[in-house]
Hints:
This protein has helices at about 5-20, 30-50, 105-110, 135-140, 165-170; strands at about 90-95, 115-120, 125-135, 150-155, 160-165, 175-180, 185, 195, 210-215. By secondary structure, it is α+β, with helices and mostly antiparallel strands.
Amino acid sequence: MTTERRGLLQRGFSLGALTMLTGCDVSDNDAVQSFLARFSEWNDRVQAALFSGQRLAPTFSETQAVKNFRYNAWYGPDKAPNLDPADYRLLLSGKIADKKPWTVDELHALPQQTQITRHICVEGWSMIGKWTGTPLRTFLDRVGADTTARYVGFECADGYYEGIDMQTALHPQTLMAFKLADEILPRQHGFPFKLRIPTKLGFKNPKFITTMYVTNKQPRGYWTDRGYNWFSGS
């Protein structure tokens, strides 16, 4: 779905919703945006209330997983960050006891597991992939993160930024994915690792992660800042 089409749909929803529900002057753009913001916050609260930290997303057989996973970003694959494994460091901050930076080799030495789950994109397509990596919960325990805090945030080498609630971070299927289809995560899919969260829409799965932090302040989201819902469960 193009940006223009999303904007058209959003504007159409705004006009109809405001006319039927609020009686606002539809020519008042501030009122439109205020209503949309309140509706989005309400939607986030409902999704968060329905989310279960133990309910699993569907899993699939290996024969259903694609080998050539679809590339997706706002820039072409030739512009994806090319991170040197020798120089890369994962930086930690916030409510984490051990803030020592992590190298690629140290990350790859963590205990790993595999899941075959469906990636669901807000643009309307989905794809099943085989992902291997370390449960985020395992990593948070390893570094002494305060898991009573409310959120985990991420910053990425391509300028992306995202955050998730702690309940999602501790979900057993939330993975720091180091491999795709049994191969080291390719550059275009987020080397050295991406977050794989099958309980969330695709844009909540950041790639090229360079910083991770634990906080009680809700982190910003790249697409949330552009009108998408923050919680965005799939």
